[in-house]
Amino acid sequence: MLILHDILEKLKNEFAQSSKGQERGIWFVYTIVAIIVPFASSRTSNILRCLKTVFGFSGISRKKFYTFMASPRIPWQRLWPTLWKLIPLPTTGGRLMLALDDSINAKTGKKIFACDKVFDHAAKQNQSRYPWAQNIVAVGLLKMIKGRWACLPLSYRFYLLKKTIERMNRDSNGPEVTFKSKLAMAVDMIGEIAAVFPRKRIVIITDSWFGNGGLWKPLKKQLGIWVDMISRLRSNSTIFELPPPPTGRQGRPRKYGRKLGNAAALAVRFKSLAKEYIVNLYGRNRNIVAYERVVMLKTIRCAVKVVWVYRKTQWVALYSTDLSLSAEQIIEYYGARWKIEALFKELKNDIGSADTQSRHPQAVSNHLHFCMLATTVAWIYASRVEKTPSRRHAVGGRRHFAFSDVRRSVTKAAMDKDFGRLFPVPRKSVFNSLVDVLLRMAA
Question: Is the pTM of this model over 0.85?
Answer without folding.
Answer: yes
